[in-house]
Every structure is written in C-alpha cells, then in structure tokens.
Specification:
single chain; alpha/beta; seven-stranded mixed beta sheet; six-stranded parallel beta sheet; 13 strands; 19% strand; globular; binds NADPH dihydro-nicotinamide-adenine-dinucleotide phosphate; binds N-acetyl-L-glutamyl 5-phosphate; N-acetyl-gamma-glutamyl-phosphate reductase activity; arginine biosynthesis; N-acetyl-gamma-glutamyl-phosphate reductase
Amino acid sequence: MIKIGVVGGTGYTGVELLRLLARHPEADLVAITSRGDAGLPVSDMFPSLRGRVDLRFVAPQDAALDRCDVVFFATPNGIAMQQARELVDAGVRLIDLAADFRIRDVAEWEKWYGMKHASPDLVAEAVYGLPERNRERIRSARVLANPGCYPTAVQLGFLPLIESGAADLSHLIADVKSGVSGAGRKAEVHTLFAEAADNFKAYGVAGHRHLPEIRQGLEAMAGQCVGLTFVPHLTPMIRGIHATLYARLSKDVNVQKLFEERYQDEPFVDVLPAGSHPETRSVRASNLCRVAVHRPQGGEVVVVLSVIDNLVKGAAGQAVQCMNIMFDLDESLGLDIVPVSP
Ligand SMILES: NC(=O)C1=CN([C@@H]2O[C@H](COP(=O)(O)OP(=O)(O)OC[C@H]3O[C@@H](n4cnc5c(N)ncnc54)[C@H](OP(=O)(O)O)[C@@H]3O)[C@@H](O)[C@H]2O)C=CC1
Ligand SMILES: CC(=O)N[C@@H](CCC(=O)OP(=O)(O)O)C(=O)O
C-alpha cells in the first residue's frame, strides 16, 4: 500500500482526490490537512465520504508528512515549493496540483505568478505530468508538476496535429470555457451564485497565467516556437472545460485517422467518431478527455473540440494517474469510473 498525504483536503481538488483515493485499492490515506478545520472528521465536512474516509483533518504542521510515500499538494500556488526540498530529502515523492513546478523558466514563472520561487533548483528536475506526452519520465519523478486544467484540455486537443507537423504553428487559437469550480472553493465575489449562475464572460484576454504553460507544452511538441492566442471564459456550470481549438493545416492529412492512431493506446483520451460534438457532461466526474476533430467544408482550417472535467482529468484524476505511473501500478487503477451524466 502507498502511504499518502493530502495537503489542502478541504478544497475542490482536495476532496476530489479523497473521492478517488478512497476507492483506490493501493492507497492508504494517512494525513489530510486543513488549517482551519483541524480535528474535524473529514466526513463531517464531506458526508459523501462517510464510511470511506475515517480520518480527521490535521493541521499542516502536525501532519508528519515525512512518513508518507507521496504527498499531494492541492493548495494555492506557492505552497508546495516551500516544503518540497524537505520532503524530497526525506525520500517523499511530491505531486503538486498547483503551478509551482510547471514552468521551466523560473524568471518567467516569477513574472506570471508574482512571487519569488522558493525551490528553483527543484524546478529543473520536476516532471510535467501529462502522461500522454511524458509517461516514461513520470515513472521516476520525485517532483511531479500536475498540469493545469485549461492546459490539459488544450494540449491534448492540439497534440496529434503538432507532433505530426500537420499544423501551421504561426497562429493557433484556443477558445476555452470553464465551469466555476475551476476558481476553487474559497469565497470570492465573482463565484457567488448570483454573480456566476446566470452570466457568461471572457477574462484574461490580455494574458492568463496558463498561457506560458500551454505555450511551453506546445513548443516541446513542435520543437520550435508557436504563435498562440488563448482566451478563457467563465461559463455557468459547476464542472467541466470545453476547448474549441483552431489550427490551419500545413499539409493535407486525414485528421480523423491522425487523432485515432495517436490516441489508440491512451486509456483516458477518447477520439469520437467524425462529426461529433463532445459535451462536458459526457466526462463529468471521470478522468476522460473526449476529443472530436472537424475540417469544416474540407477546408484548411481544423477545429478540435476537447472536453474534460477540470477537477478530474484537469486536476485530481490526472494526479492519481501520475501516481499510478510513479508507483508502477496499472495506470487506470482507481480511475475506471463511468461519467456522471443524465
Ligand atoms: N479547481 C480546479 O479546477 C483546478 C485547480 N487546480 C489547482 O489546484 C490547487 C487547489 O485548487 P482548488 O482545490 O480549486 O482550491 P481551493 O481553494 O478549493 O482549496 C485550496 C485548499 O488549500 C488549502 N490551503 C490554502 N492555503 C494553504 C496554506 N497556506 N497551507 C496549507 N493549505 C492551504 C485550503 O485548506 P484550509 O484553508 O482548510 O487549510 C484548501 O483545502 C490550486 O493551486 C489550483 O490552481 C488545478 C487544476 C484545476
Ligand atoms: C474558472 C477559473 O477561475 N479558473 C482558474 C484556472 C483554474 C486553476 O485552478 O488553475 P490551475 O490549473 O493553474 O491550477 C483561473 O482562471 O484562474
């Protein structure tokens, strides 16, 4: 059994981790932290976990995380980096759901995240946890940077086009919509029911912190610079990301075949039949990314539709997928979940 700590067990991605790990046959949850609710039984806060998770929340400083084999940080940006060195030196592997280790250029990270990096030496060895790209490197990772939710949907949607050299890299467009849980569980005015339940808006058009992360991933696939326009939107649903991606073809290819072949062995990427329109509810609470590729009127522009659940393939599910790879387990263990859909 893998001894597991979860820092940030009261947040949306934290409770999603608990849901997945509670039924994972190799997971032994030993510590779940909360600063404000230490001592409270986890199932008092989350009744859905009653009978599944028997622990009480513990304060982060009392969690004795060095007894764990792996610690998940489901915390705001800038927390994991403060404890990473100590944990790594104690032989504990770390999976950060935040962005502390995602950007390889530390100065670039500091610019976008507005803080000084506390463990720049560990950024160099951290592995970006997108299994569809980095499976082999993930196996031996001591520090795993779990990708962001928007970056997961966008990178998986563009990946076959870019790896194969079929896309004109000068101008890629990612028009992406997120559910409100993407903003986390903390109280904020813009996520109040009366603000978000009956509204739709773009934000971060001038520059969102996921832009450098997506660009870094796409450039690694391409081996060269890419031009990217990324526009996130907040949409009145709770979970889900819907990415509409546009690329101009640089050569004539059968895009449907390209996607089917690239993803044929991937357990969590489902290429839909030609002409499909994936819906966010078709992946709700599952670790799947569903993609459909279109070439309207047989023209040069390809439109890719990519949907994920931001809390699962966009966060906790992908983190568990990476844990499975890191600990030589079946990659799908604990993740073989049928989506929740009407
Ligand atoms: N929501 C999403 O769709 C996605 C989120 N992420 C990333 O995952 C991380 C968690 O997101 P999410 O679950 O939505 O956030 P939430 O705001 O819902 O939860 C944050 C958690 O962190 C804990 N926390 C806050 N500050 C500290 C601290 N200083 N030390 C220890 N624990 C702390 C809080 O617990 P308490 O106050 O009880 O201590 C809480 O459990 C973020 O970095 C986010 O960017 C990544 C992909 C998708
Ligand atoms: C809807 C919404 O607010 N989404 C968040 C992004 C999701 C997130 O938590 O960011 P990471 O994936 O980097 O961790 C935002 O735009 O800030």
